[in-house]
Amino acid sequence: MENKKKNIKLAITAITLFCGLGGGTIGLMLNQVKELLAIDNWSVAQKVFEANFIGKRYVRFWNTDIGKLQPFEILRRLLLEVRELGIMLLSPPCQGFSVAKGVINPLDPRNKLFLDSISLIAGVLPKCFIIENVPGMEDPRNISILNEIKRRISEQLEPHYEIRCFKLCSLNFKTPQKRFRLIYIGYLKEFGEIPTAPKPDFEEIASLRIVDIAPEIDAIKVGQSKKTLKSNTAYMNTITATDGVIVFSKGDKRSLTVEENKNFATFPEWFKIPAEISDQKAHKLFGNTIPPNFMKAIVENIKNDLGDDLLSEID
Asked: How does pLDDT run across 141-182, given as a tens digit for each residue?
């Protein structure tokens, strides 16, 4: 958008932290959001990200330890002041909170990265923030770390933001896997708006079965010890980074292919995995990512809530 009267360009700006291979980046891109910086410290993710976000889709990647990052370092790199950034999207590691394997460790050192995320938001004060993580955060066994998260949010963020947390399923947002996530959304109080959840798109669900996305798959086995057999007329379970899906196809038993991982995660046709990245590492990347269609719906709803308040001047 351009303000012709003053010859000033306006856009919604954003950064992503724990960006992985770029699912959140694509979700922002589908909403015409200008991402200024993507941050992660996994070299494999960087290689895939930089192979895809080039040319007109270029997004700068910063490989750094987010656990040691300070807000002023982000602002200095962006050449921005506090409150100038539009959207801050964070996806801190979920493994310490996850109940997927039946083992929970509230003291997992990766859980600290959620607390670090809160501090970074408080130091940058974007117009809007989004934090996504697994519903396992709310498991009673995680009560100690969850209470600390709530305390930090109350002390560091609530003085500045209207904040809401929603439990959403990606299947309701044009994504062919039943991936449940807790989505924390905060709007600066000066806007006078309260975050709302995106409305589910139930019309698309009928065409998101396994057979609709990958007709060559006859059935899958999922769950602990792979005991649950599902036909291809069911919906794909959450594709995780560590717990692979067993696929039955044409009499063979195998893992999901890279292309199948990509399609179940709603990555576009142009998105490619470099040849030197192993299938195992690619599966881990897709298992960790935010599905682009899922994030597209979330950001689209935020734009509807805040309108022009999200806009910033850009060069």
From this structure: 878 888 999 999 999 999 999 999 999 999 999 999 999 999
In whole angstroms, give the CA distance from residue 54 to residue 52: 6
Token pair of 232 as six digits: 């291809």
Per the listing, tokens 């959450």 go with: 238
What is the CA 237 to chain-centroid distance, rounded? 17
Are residues 251 and 301 located together in one domain of the fold?
A: no
SS3 state of residue 181? strand
The answer as to whether 214 is a domain residue is: yes
Q: Write the secondary structure of 128-158 as one string of H (helix), E (strand) and C (coil).
A: EEEEEECHHHHCHHHHHHHHHHHHHHHHHHC
Q: For residue 280, what are the contacts with CB-CB under 8 A and spacing of at least 6?
A: none
Write the pLDDT tens digit of every residue in 83-112: 999 999 999 986 656 555 556 666 676 788
Tokens 């700006």 locate to: 13
Q: Domain of 256?
A: 204-278
Please choose, from the candidates 124, 117, 37, the residue with its C-alpha nearest in 3D space to the C-alpha of residue 85: 124
Enter the tokens of residue 14: 């954003």
Enumerate the H helices of 57-111 as residue ranges. 71-78
